[in-house]
Amino acid sequence: MSSTVSTVITNIATLVTNDPSLSLGGGSPLGLIQDAAVVIDGDRIAWTGETSKAPATDNRVDAGGRAVLPGFVDSHSHLVFAGDRTQEFNARMSGRAYSAGGIRTTVAATRAASDAELEANLTRYLDEALRQGTTTFETKSGYGLTVADESRALRIAAAHTDEVTYLGAHIVSPDYADDPAAYVALVTGEMLNACAPHARWIDVFCEKGAFDGDQARAILTAGKAKGLHPRIHANQLSYGPGVQLAVELDAASADHCTHLTDADVDALAAGRTVATLLPGAEFSTRAEWPDARRLLDAGVTVALSTDCNPGSSFTSSVPFCIALAVRDMGMTPDEAVWAATAGGAAALRRDDVGRIAVGARADLTLLDAPSHVHLAYRPGVPLVRGVWRRGVRVV
C-alpha cells in the first residue's frame, strides 16, 4: 500500500485525459471519459475510469457533474519585469502601429526595480494564472539586457519554475544600439556564462528590428554548446528565417508562426519543433491571426500559450486564448484545449504534464461547466472552480 494520501474525484461529467487510445470515433484527440472518476495518489495520477468502477481511497471529492481537464501548460511567457505600458497600449488602440521598440520602456523599468519588486510582480501573475487553471508555465528573461540584470531575472524565475528561458537576445540592448555585433558577442559570451546555470532554454527574437537569421543561429548554437535547448520567436511580424532555423536546430518550439510560407509549414510538419501560437499578441496588437487550421491540416503539432508580457499580450488567461483560437484561428474547441495542455507539454518536451493518465503529475483543473467546450462557448467567464497542482488542491 502507498504511504501517501489518496483522493478520488468522482461524478465528473467529462474527463479530458489527452490519451488518444481512449478516443472512440469522432477523431477527438482528447481521450474523453464520460461519468468519470480520477484517483490522485501523492503527486501522481493513480487511476482513471468510470465513476462506478472507482477504487476506495482516503478522501473523496464530488465533482458535481462538472468537467475535469489537465492543468494548462503555458509554454511561453515573459513575467520577470517591472512597470506597465498602459499608455503605449492606449495609443496603439487609438491608431499607432506596434513595433519591437516598446520593449525598451520595460527594460528601463526592470533595470530600476529591486529583486523583491521583480519577484513580487512575478508571483502576482503566477497566482493569477493558477486561478485560471495554469499549473505549468515557462517564463523568460529579456527585460534586463545586461549581464547582471539577465542573470538575476533567471535566478528569480528559477525559484518558481523549472521551465526558465534565457532571452538576452530579446532586442539589441539600447546600450549597444550602434554596435549590434558587440551585443551578440556579449549574449553568446559573458552573459550566456552568467545565465546558463539558471536556465533550461535559450530563445531569440528573430525579426526585423531585433536579430537576423545569422545572429539568431550564432546565439542559439552558443546556447546549445552550454547545454541550453533552443526555442525561438519566429515569423511574428513578417516572413523570415526563424521557423526554418528552429527546425534546423531542433528547437523545441517556434513561437508566434503568424507569417508562414508553404516551405515553413512543410518544415514544421517534418520536424519535431512545435508551432506555439500566441493569440493574445494578435488580439492586443490588432495583427493578422495565425492560421492554426493550415498548420493542423499539415500535421504540425500546435501549442497555445498566453505570451503574457506587458507590451504585446498582457493576459495570463489560457481560457481567453482558447476562445480566441477557436473564434479566429480555425481551431475546434477540442484542438484548442489539446494545444493548451498536451501541446504546451510537447513545446516543453514534457510527458509528465498536459495529460491525465496513470503516472502523470496530478495537475487538474475543475470547470464550473459540464464540458471543456465551455472554455470557448462562454468566453470571458471565470469557469475554473478548482485546481490541483502536484496532487494538492490550490484553488
Largest sheet: 9 strands, parallel
Mean pLDDT reading: 96
Q: Which assembly state applies to the chains in this document? A: single chain
Tally the helices: what do you get?
A: 14
Can you tell me the residue ranges where pLDDT is under 50 for at least 5 consecutive residues?
A: none
What's the total count of β strands? 16
What fraction of the residues are assigned to beta strands by DSSP?
15-25%
Overview of the molecule:
- A hairpin with a 2-residue loop joins strand 2 and strand 3.
- The two termini are 28 Å apart.
- This protein has helices at 86-93, 103-112, 115-131, 147-158, 180-188, 190-195, 213-225, 242-248, 262-270, 279-285, 292-297, 318-328, 333-347, 374-377; strands at 6-16, 32-41, 44-50, 59-70, 72-74, 134-140, 163-169, 201-206, 229-230, 232-234, 253-256, 274-277, 302-304, 364-367, 384-389, 392-393.
- The protein is globular, with a radius of gyration of 21 Å.
- The model has no long low-confidence stretch (mean pLDDT 96).
- The strands form two sheets. Strands 5, 6, 7, 8, 9, 10, 11, 12 and 13 form a nine-stranded parallel sheet that branches. The protein has a seven-stranded mixed sheet with strand order 3-2-1-4-14-15-16, with no helix packed on it.
- The protein contains 14 helices and 16 strands.
- By secondary structure, the chain is an alpha/beta fold.
